[in-house]
Amino acid sequence: MKILANDGISSAGIKKLEEAGFTVVTEHVAQDQLIETINKENYVALLVRSATTVRKDLIDACPELKFIGRGGVGMDNIDVAYAREKGLTVENTPGASSQSVAELTMGTMYALARMTYDSYQNMPKTGNEDFKTLKKQYSKGTELRGKTLLVYGFGRIGQTLASYALGAGMKVVGLSLYKEEVEIPIQIEGIGEVVAKIETTTNADEAISQADFISMNVPKQDGNKAVIGKAEFEKMKDGVRLVNVARGGVIDEDDLLEALNNGKVAAAALDVFENEPSPRIDLLSHPRIACTPHIGGQTAEAQSRIGTELADKIIATLK
Q1: Which InterPro entries does the entry link to (predicted)?
Q2: Which CATH architecture has domain 2-94+300-318?
Q3: Is the separation of the CB atoms in 48 and 74 below 8 Å?
Q4: Model-level pTM?
Q5: Which terminus in the chain has less CB density within 10 A, N or C?
Q6: Is 247 in the active site?
Q7: What sign does the CA torsion over 49, 54, 59, 64 have?
């Protein structure tokens, strides 16, 4: 049985699949040639990341396809309900990248707090001549310890982030659809596991007003509706800092720019954008936005876990 990993798969995932008797092809096929290739090569499984879309037309046109796998969390590039209605198995890897996304979020929060993202750009340009000026410019940072972090969406990634933030001495507010007590394990080398308990809240307005830092960890909304817009920015503390590692569009980009320019938001970090892979220049060039190119789950460890998790699900389904 042949599998097309159209957006790639880790060597660990390939090894596990090949040992189970599958043939894995990783050569990327252009979207407009995908249907023809799947049928011609008799692929039974298609694995994608975010670059390839799997819509109704492909599902209908490829009757031998049995499995669609998404390496990552969000499945907005797949017509999931329709595929399952047609009898296909559709799986993602929600837990595989949680650690990597949480670590990127912590790193960007430190960068926003100390403005290092901007310093890294300006020191090579003018540090030799304007050292004292830059030192004064970047001497207005803040500490994370004692600050309140609102984790907007308290699923796997949000809870993993909470463990790091609690370890850094932050107060964590978990915003969820349901009120519940969540146990957060904190791993401390040489000591073991310490468990903290967080009572989630469903009151977005109250949670937003408390936060010094906000991390967006929610899926893409129906109609790409923004979760954070002008009304939400008005409820925030002055000088709040935001991180979006979820999906482009969950923060209204126009309203974010306005909030940055009027001082409501001190700084923001964006790993995702509405118009990927061609994000707006005014976002990329803004002096108080730290940008990364959608790399939340792009670590060697996460990619290996994604590959082996997909392999396990394919083997369980097709073997």
Answers
A1: D-iso_2-hydroxyacid_DH_PdxB, D-isomer_2_OHA_DH_cat_dom, D-isomer_DH_CS, D-isomer_DH_NAD-bd, NAD(P)-bd_dom_sf
A2: 3-Layer(aba) Sandwich (3.40)
A3: no
A4: 0.89
A5: C
A6: yes
A7: negative
